[in-house]
Inverse folding.
């Protein structure tokens, strides 16, 4: 595996690349689901946010902060 294989590019992914499992958490901002990649069965968590929540500039700033983390 080369170093370029480890670089994450969000534009390379789609929700269709994952099998979504059970909900493992929720909060005021979104819900977190257990997921697995279809290609190599890597287990991960996916946070799903309602698109209408991003209309608020403060909420969009919080999402950008979470992406950075």
């Amino acid at each position: 595996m080369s170093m370029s294989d480890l670089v994450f590019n969000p534009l390379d992914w789609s929700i269709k690349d994952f099998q979504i499992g059970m909900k493992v958490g929720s909060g005021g901002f979104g819900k977190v689901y257990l997921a697995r990649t279809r290609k190599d069965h890597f287990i991960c968590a996916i946070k799903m946010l309602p698109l209408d929540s991003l209309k608020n500039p403060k909420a969009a700033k919080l999402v950008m902060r979470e992406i950075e983390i």
